[in-house]
Design brief:
GO terms for molecular function: sequence-specific DNA binding. This protein is mostly helical. It contains eleven helices and four strands; from the N terminus they run ααααααβααααβββα. About 40% of the residues are buried. The structure holds a DNA duplex (21 and 21 nucleotides).
Length: about 325
DNA sequence: AACCGAGACAACCGCTGGTCG
DNA sequence: GCGACCAGCGGTTGTCTCGGT
């Protein structure tokens, strides 16, 4: 059967919005506020679907939107956030005031993904494929409104985001820190990198754990409340029985790879620099009810490619810091 | 000047999760 | 507990613009 369409499509206008329609919509929202998108077009006298109105408002008419080119800082931020969040454009957009998910998504698809792809295809750095589909909730589409968003929709202004956004925030904080630390650090030799590569952080043969990590666990790792990893590991890397490398990486980033199941779900991170000795001092598992032996690691899929530094190339050229895996 | 292809961006579509009756 | 409704998300498609031939 399928569900009924979200709105009667008969007689509804599609395609580009006219200036008049924009004015009507903007005026109506100014008077009545956002929300009730389903009834909005009817009440406002627009021959548009509620969804269309919402999209138009969010992506174009909102007063707080920043128009114009994406700055280098914003671009870098997008790259970083994408490394952490994958194609979660709304979360990424949440960290870029005045930018919409649609805008960022378009920008990524037309600019950054190619850059990242080009960089990767040049054999630069290491690719770590983190299969978010293996994470509960991680690989799934995050449609729907969250509870707090629902609350907001009911009238209250509730700050968006919980675990994943927090994760992004912390990741960025650490990225900034790491960037400062790493920027002067000696670039490890290819040999060192090869050693790092040989440390066992590979994906083949990895068995999926019976249960993946809970979203709370993953978020918890990056949660500012208890983010610090502390480890008694001597080595920089956890082997793949115990989990992904917890070392500090810097390097170029990032590619989103489409799997057979579609574009979302996989985040491939290009990791160039492998600071075998830096590692873990910043991380503290204290307070997290997990251990490095936890099953959660088993469901992460790692795919190391080439560790070689591009000839004459500088690692970190494209993306000087990588933090998600650092934090893991 | 006309055509064509690529790039950029706006909008649509299908699906999802949360809420509510 | 269930289903309908709703808002939101991300992928995809459509349209416009611009540069090259």
């Amino acid at each position: 059967m399928g569900r009924a369409p979200c709105c009667e499509k008969v007689g509804l206008k599609k395609g580009r919005w006219t200036k008049e329609e924009d004015e009507i919509l903007a005026r109506y929202i100014k008077e009545h506020g956002e929300g009730s998108w389903r009834s909005l077009p009817k009440n406002a006298g627009l021959l548009r679907c509620g969804k269309s109105c919402r999209l138009r408002w969010i992506n174009y008419l909102r007063a707080d939107l920043k128009r114009g080119n994406i700055s280098e800082e914003e671009e870098e931020m997008i790259m970083k956030l994408h490394a952490t969040l994958g194609n979660r454009w709304s979360l990424i957009a949440g960290h870029l005031p005045g930018r919409t998910d649609n805008e960022i998504k378009n920008y990524w698809n037309s600019h950054l993904s190619r850059r990242a792809s080009d960089f990767r295809s040049g054999g630069h750095g290491v690719v770590v494929n983190l299969d978010l589909a293996k994470l509960p909730g991680g690989g799934k589409r995050r449609g729907g409104r969250s509870g707090h968003n629902a609350a907001a929709a009911k009238g209250g202004k509730v700050k968006k985001g919980k675990g994943k956004e927090k994760a992004a925030e912390v990741a960025l904080q650490h990225a900034a820190k790491k960037e400062q630390e790493d920027i002067n650090a000696a670039t490890p030799s290819s040999q060192e990198q090869a050693q790092a590569s040989a440390s066992g952080v590979t994906s083949d043969g990895l068995e999926d754990g019976p249960l993946g990590p809970s979203e709370e666990m993953v978020s918890g790792l990056l949660d500012p409340v208890c983010p610090k990893l502390e480890t008694d590991l001597d080595g920089a890397c956890m082997d793949h029985d115990s989990g992904p490398c917890m070392d500090s990486y810097t390097g170029p980033c990032i590619k989103s790879e489409s799997g057979p199941s579609g574009p979302c779900g996989d985040v491939a991170q290009e990791v160039g620099d492998h600071h075998a000795d830096k590692a873990l001092e910043d991380w503290d598992l204290t307070g997290l009810e997990i251990s490095v032996d936890d099953d959660m690691w088993d469901s992460l899929v790692w795919d190391y490619n080439d560790m070689a530094v591009p000839e004459g190339g500088k690692q970190g050229e494209l993306m000087p810091d990588l933090f998600f895996l650092d934090n893991m």
